[in-house]
Amino acid sequence: MNIPEELCYTKEHEWARMEGDLCVVGITDYAQGELGDIVYVELPEPGTHVDIMGEFGVVESVKTASDLYSPLAGEIVEVNDELADSPELVNDSPYDEGWMLKIRPSNLDEDWETLLDAEGYRAVLAESGAH
Amino acid sequence: MQNAEPLIFERSSPGRHGYSLPESDVPALDSNEAVPAHWQRSSLPLPEASELDVVRHFTRLSQRNYSIEHGFYPLGSCTMKYNPKVNDATAGMPGFSFVHPHQPESTIQGALALIHGLSRLIMEITGYANCSLQPAAGAHGELCGVLMMRAYHVKQGNPRRKMIIPDSAHGTNPATAAMCGYTAIEVPSSDRGTVDMDALATLLDEDVAGLMLTVPNTLGLFEQDIVEICRMAHAVGALVYCDGANMNALLGTVQPAALGLDVLHLNLHKTFTTPHGGGGPGAGAICVNETLEPYLPVPLVKEQDGEYAWDYDRPDSIGRIHSFYGNFLNQVRAYTYICTLGAEGIKRAGEYAVLNGNYLKERLRDAYALRYDRTCMHEVVFAGLKEKAEGVRTLDVAKRMIDYGFHPSTVYFPLIVPEALMIEPTETENKDTLDSFIEALLAIAEEAQTAPELLKEAPVSAPVRRLDETTAARRPNLRWQPPE
Questions:
Q1: ipTM for the complex?
Q2: CB contact set of B439 (below 8 Å; sequence gap of 6+)
Q3: Which residues in chain A have Cβ-Cβ distances shorter than 8 Å to B175?
């Protein structure tokens, strides 16, 4: 299971990475593996405001549907339109081509403190009995 | 796809047909005069086949169907019990099958008496003040129930905004709440698998219109705090909806109204042996206490001095929710079932359903992981294999059941149980059938350790193997198109 050291994580299996003054968000390799083949990703309209750990969308796989939670509060400036036609990018490349949102954070310093580092996320997975 | 039966379109051969019409003895009409040219189609590629071709095609397809009349169908949360043939005998009686809903009341007294009588039987079984048989299925009953809850709150001056729903609920519950304009608020389950009472206490306030609970819940567990839950909800002016999908467990033993639940739907096609799915249509029934009684859909059937009549004089009613009076012939079947069993038989049906659920739980607990180790009700939920095997998932266990001659059980629901495997045997199966199913599941658990490829490759005995569910969902192809 791939948990890159340079990313930050939520307990709900989203990752976050700063690119300039924007935060890029997606779901982890573990999450895509548990969901199985993803068939649909519902993302918000750019311009929408999202709260920290607020729901921003839904990811649907062959076996289940799951809410998506934002690691940070802010304005959504861009969503990955490729996922509309190619949801499999989330399975194939969860940390790169399968990204979901770019957020302009409104409370970056405080929100960032709430996120887990790779070690913290590994501990969350171990605690939940993930294999 | 070896063994695949071609579509009837693919069997078509130009000029072949199964009819022979006489010469037309009326003057031919020029279609260009009757219908403007731009509304006419130049071709209609309907299949051309002989009567025998058609009969063989559909007979072959029907033989590939799997139903409760072929074998055990342990579909958790769906109560796939046997539908006795006597139900169809009564539903086929001309007095029921040849009536029209526009007939004068005086000519359909028997049909009206049946609707009235079934309502009374359902009220006795559930303890409610009144009920409507209009809804066409469970989710339709839910919609009707929550619309009534909303109408009640509007009448009090405020429809309120929130609906509290457990994380183990059927997906239709939050969908119903949203359809009725409510925000669904999730209440977590405790480590016992029932509503987390502390979490519920923090969620309840005067903006909560109601709770939607399934009793017993989708984990097959009785909500032991249900009376207190209803009391807490009523204390803030909220109502409690009961999803009656699991009513089979309570038959004759628990009246949901007595627990404090304000409104309940029943699935006649689950609990009361009317056709389920393809043989449908389904039939719901929505039962209410005195608080919600004024809001029931119209019409109801009223009785006065032995005469039955439609009752539309209900000013607070939410109105119609189905044409005429629902799926009437399935009401005849449910009435037949209840009368056939009688009060004692109905109670025994519920007791045997619970006994069978617990028998499966105890016999399978060493091979499959119990998430909540408690006495269950009519169904049991396992968190997949107890001894995990590399790469083997619950889906593989379910597919392997096909090779052992059983319909797979429900999998991956409820969502809060990882690798969920949910089994509901119902009371209509005897111990021999349950034992052969248990032996199969134990053998599958053994194979997962010794020969996991048998599970990964399953099913090998079905006309088709693993279907490509991913491509079917990503690029659905739903319609046959003639070759260019």
A1: 0.72
A2: none
A3: none
| Shortest CA distance from A36: residue in chain B | B470
* Rounded CA separation B319/B298 (Å): 5
Expressed as residue numbers, the domain containing A34 is: 8-107
Q: Give, as one character, the DSSP assignment of residue A11.
A: T
Locate the chain A residue with the closest alpha carbon to B414. A64
Q: Which of B468, B106, B68, B136 is nearest to B281 (CA)?
A: B136
- CATH code, domain with A48: 2.40.50.100
Comparing CB atoms, the residue among A39, A64, A131 nearest residue B470 is A39
Domain boundaries for CATH 3.40.640.10 within chain B? 85-341
Topology given in CATH for the domain delimited by B85-341:
Aspartate Aminotransferase; domain 2 (3.40.640)
Chains A, B: CB contacts within 8 A come to: 18
Listing DSSP states for B199-218 in one string gives HHHHH--TTEEEEEEESS-T
- Residue-level pLDDT at B388: 87
Q: Is the peptide bond before B94 cis (omega within 30 degrees of 0)?
A: no
pLDDT of residue B278 exceeding 60: no
- B39 by Cβ neighbours in 10 Å (0-12 / 13-18 / 19+) ranks as exposed
Which range has highest mean pLDDT (B10-24, B29-43, B227-241)? Answer: B227-241
CB–CB contact A64 B469 (8 Å)? no
Question: B395 vs A64: CB contact, 8 Å cut-off?
Answer: no
Quick count: other Cβ atoms within 10 Å of Cβ A121?
21
Min Cα–Cα distance to chain A from B418, Å:
10
Question: Which pLDDT score is estimated for B280?
Answer: 58
Model pLDDT, residue B481: 85
Q: Does B11 have pLDDT greater than 70?
A: yes
Asked if the Cβ–Cβ distance from A62 to B469 is below 8 Å, we say yes
Q: From CA A13, how far away is CA B313, in angstroms rounded?
A: 55
SS3 for B426?
coil
**What global pTM score does this model have?**
0.88
Fold of B344-471: Aspartate Aminotransferase, domain 1 (3.90.1150)
Residues of B in contact with A37 (CB under 8 A): 469-470, 473
Q: Does residue B2 carry a pLDDT above 80?
A: no
The pLDDT, as a whole number, for residue B45 is 83
